[in-house]
Design brief:
Layout: H1 2-7, E1 11-12, E2 16-23, E3 29-39, E4 43-48, E5 57-66, E6 69-86, E7 89-96, H2 98-101, H3 107-134
Antiparallel strand pairs: 1-3, 2-3, 2-5, 3-4, 4-7, 5-6, 6-7
Protein name: PilZ domain-containing protein
Domain PilZ: 6-97
InterPro entries: PilZ_domain
Amino acid sequence: MKNDLRARKRMPTANLSSSVRVSKGLLKSIWEDARPKDFSLFGMCLKTNRPFNTGDKITVSLTLEMDMGGITIDQITAKIIRVNKLVGFYEYGIEFDKKIVTNPDNPLTLNMMRIENFLTKQEALSAKIAQKAAL
């Protein structure tokens, strides 16, 4: 299954924003911005200055801004599967909760698929424009 997850191409995230919920004591939490690097239905890469460890469970919020409105994922749980410490920030490979993303009847899954489809179309259009500009 692990190889299948990475077999799905991840799309650049031009209009996608994300945040991670961070615990601030027993009953309080806040949302901190995290920069998405790439995205697929099964996982994504995030950049943030908040330290996490491989195996940690996190809660992520996603928003895709479009001309005709937006798509919002208020909360989805994910597991940190890769940590890369860079200068001044961390880059995390995260895997979304499999119970959610493999259930096609879940409205959250449908919105995740809509985000992936939009980013796929956007990437194809960008590649086509770049190809024409190179001619």
